[in-house]
Amino acid sequence: MAPSNLTDRIKPNGISIVSYLECLQKGDYQIPTFQREIVWDKSNVKKLWDSIYKFYPLGSILIWKTDIKLHNHRKIGGHVIPTEDTRAQFQYILDGQQRTTSLLTSIYGGEISGKLGFNPTVFIDLTIPFQDNVDDSSYTHRFIFWDEIDDKNGTFRRNMGRKKKYDDVLILKILDIKMIFKVYLPN
Predict the structure, then answer these.
(1) Does the residue 121 lie in any domain?
(2) CA 42 remoteness from chain centre
(3) In Å, how far are 94, 104, 136, 153 from 90, measured between CA atoms?
(4) CA 148 from chain center: how many Å?
(5) Hey, which of 13, 66, 99, 140 has its CA 20 to 30 A from 50?
(6) How far is the C-alpha of 12 from the C-alpha of 45, rounded, in Å?
(7) Would residue 59 be called left, alpha or beta, if left means φ above 0 and alpha means ψ between -120 and 50 degrees?
């Protein structure tokens, strides 16, 4: 029997970022090609990670479950997303593509179309102190990209301090943090 109204059909499903991305990588979610291209810049990605760091809500990601097969992107941030044409039901990301791509590429690396040579992997500087939840500036230094660390073998003086912190394991990839928690906080 079909639900009597839309509120019966629309319901939240809270899953972790890691679980969401694992489902995406398995092909459980697809991004239809009518979605716009990635427009977020480095600052937006850093702000997203600042929200996660401060335990702020990230907003919802709207998923459409349907038996209709749509043309979809085969790659998201350079990552191949498998598709199964034999599925009985498909799940399409209708809202949240920018956040999804940013999360996927900032944890697992990848590529952003139109930004040749840019490494979207996000690193965290563990030496940046947490001030308070209304601090709106430290995230620019706490969450960084490789081009803000790489000192090009000592020739890029501006990044030498960060490169030393990276070498001293005071700056880590977000993926490293995920792996540490996986080891020390198993399911």
Answers:
(1) yes
(2) 12
(3) 12, 20, 39, 48
(4) 19
(5) 13
(6) 24
(7) left
Phi, psi angles (nearest 5°) of residue 19: -65, -40
Domain that holds residue 112: 6-184
**Residue 122 carries which side chain, given as an amino acid letter?**
V
Please check the confidence at residue 47 and state whether its pLDDT lies above 90.
Answer: yes
Q: State whether the Cα torsion 32-35-38-40 is positive or negative.
A: negative
User: Is residue 68 domain-resident?
Assistant: yes
What does the block give as tokens for 95?
């809202």
Instruction: Compute the average pLDDT of residues 151-159.
Output: 93
C-alpha distance from residue 151 to each of 44, 109, 148, 156, 162 (Å): 24, 20, 8, 5, 8
- At 51, list the tokens: 């929200």
Sequence-ordered alpha helix ranges (H) in the chain: 6-9, 17-26, 42-53, 97-108, 139-142, 160-167, 174-184
Dihedral through CA 171, CA 175, CA 179, CA 180, nearest 10? Answer: 20
With respect to residue 160, please indicate whether it lies within any of the assigned structural domains.
yes
With respect to residue 93, please indicate whether it lies within any of the assigned structural domains: yes
Tens of pLDDT, residue by residue over 50-103, are 999 988 888 888 888 888 788 777 777 778 787 776 778 888 888 888 899 899
